[in-house]
Task: inverse folding
């Protein structure tokens, strides 16, 4: 009878020994195994992403010439407006440099823009991550901010040989400092729950009492630039609800994030020109 | 341990992982997620010898672990545990019945999903509607693909074993 009992428990004993051995392995070795498994699957991720691009290419080829001409005309108009904006930006930048020199202020962080295709989106209730098709091969550092046309996407959390993993601001564990546009007081933003078939949402806490926001009069939430990796002024979302918090001293509320975060195809990584000073040590 | 068998059992798991990631990529715009943990475990635990089966399931778990933000080995440990539970009661489950296999995969997936949610606790009760939606989505897809995936794994093993037997006979 005891031997039969042992036979029944043997699978669990074997698994227990394997797990105990695994727990005792050095962290460096585990990290190496993790990287190896990730790199083993990276070609599959990249191939699937390129196949999707090819599919999109053939779908676009089916458009008529008239449609292409119209799209080109619209693009030319947008480019013309951007040309003006670029000239104004250059003018403002030179003004900032002049003032910094005049007031002897430290220079702001400078970034190189690295555009990258999204190879994989992985959005669960447990985590919200994307894999982009650029990594160490393009000098992407861990911790670099990632943006898109609608504002902040997230932050690079892991960098591999030809890919990088970006944690989105919609992830439940993400916290960063933001400010209401036109206000300088920092408030705490946290990624929230992401309801099915609805735009992602976040939570704001420690909001000053005089800020009023509702669906009818939403407030734009932007990055504060205080102590984090994100430059100031990037859109995080829109505060659509602000209520008195449990401490009675601050308000807390709900932030509606850009629904395009759920279907990102292209993002831009802001690679600091001076990585050591711009990104916290990891 | 038969390493060839471990490799043979791991290849369909790699395919399943690739399909799972593609499905999740497509579902992401609707904020839905497909979790296929039960499918990683069910066939192997039901039909394969203990050693190679457990090894393949652990490798499959590590594949799932590689890109997740949590402790490396979480999926592997949970898959291994689920494998052992099914392995212990497999004598009482009909192996060739597609409905029984599908139900087993569904139960395994349900259990693994609940344990993962309890371990990772994303955001308290506020996250439950999303978790419920993800679970329903996963169970529906698993119901649809389990017969195909079981048949794929079984056919792959049969094909390779037949080819190896024929080659051994020719060499003799």
Result:
């Amino acid at each position: 009878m005891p031997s039969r009992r042992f036979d029944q428990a043997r699978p669990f004993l074997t698994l227990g020994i394997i797990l105990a051995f695994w727990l005792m392995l050095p962290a460096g070795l585990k990290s190496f195994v993790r990287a190896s498994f990730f790199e083993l699957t990276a070609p599959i991720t990249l191939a699937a992403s390129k196949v999707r691009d090819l599919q999109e290419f053939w779908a676009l080829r089916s458009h008529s010439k008239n449609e292409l001409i119209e799209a080109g005309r619209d693009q030319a108009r947008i480019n013309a407006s951007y040309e003006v904006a670029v000239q104004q930006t250059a003018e403002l930048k030179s003004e900032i440099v002049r003032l910094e020199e005049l007031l002897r202020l430290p220079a702001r962080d400078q970034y190189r823009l690295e555009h990258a295709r999204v190879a994989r989106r992985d959005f669960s209730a447990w985590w919200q991550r994307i894999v982009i098709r650029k990594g160490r091969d393009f000098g992407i550092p861990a911790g670099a901010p990632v943006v898109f046309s609608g504002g902040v996407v997230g932050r690079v959390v892991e960098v591999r040989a030809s890919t990088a993993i970006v944690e989105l601001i919609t992830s439940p564990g993400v916290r960063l400092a933001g400010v209401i546009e036109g206000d300088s007081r920092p408030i705490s933003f946290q990624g929230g729950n992401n309801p099915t078939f609805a735009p992602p949402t976040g939570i704001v806490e420690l909001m000053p009492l005089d800020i009023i926001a509702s669906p009818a009069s939403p407030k734009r939430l932007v990055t504060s630039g205080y102590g984090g990796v994100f430059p100031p002024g990037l859109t995080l979302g829109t505060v659509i609800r602000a209520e008195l918090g449990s401490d009675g001293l601050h308000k807390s509320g709900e932030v509606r994030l850009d629904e395009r975060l759920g279907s990102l195809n292209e993002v831009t990584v802001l690679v600091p020109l001076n990585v050591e000073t711009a990104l916290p040590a990891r | 341990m038969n390493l060839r068998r471990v490799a043979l059992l791991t290849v369909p798991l790699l395919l399943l992982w690739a399909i799972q990631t593609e499905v999740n990529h497509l579902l992401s715009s609707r904020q839905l997620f497909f979790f296929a943990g039960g499918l990683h475990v069910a066939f192997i635990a039901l039909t394969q010898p203990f050693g190679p089966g457990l090894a393949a399931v652990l490798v499959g778990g590590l594949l799932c672990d590689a890109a997740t933000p949590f402790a490396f080995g979480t999926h592997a440990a949970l898959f291994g545990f689920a494998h052992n539970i099914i392995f212990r009661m497999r004598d009482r489950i009909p192996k060739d019945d597609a409905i029984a296999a599908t139900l087993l995969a569904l139960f395994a997936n349900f259990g693994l999903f609940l344990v993962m949610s309890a371990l990772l606790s994303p955001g308290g009760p506020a996250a439950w509607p999303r978790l419920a939606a993800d679970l329903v989505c996963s169970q529906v897809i698993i119901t649809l693909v389990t017969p195909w995936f079981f048949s794929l794994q079984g056919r792959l093993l049969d094909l390779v074993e037949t080819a190896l037997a024929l080659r051994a006979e020719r060499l003799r």
Q: What stands out?
A: The CA atoms of residues 161 and 167 of chain B lie 10 Å apart. The mean pLDDT of chain B is 91.
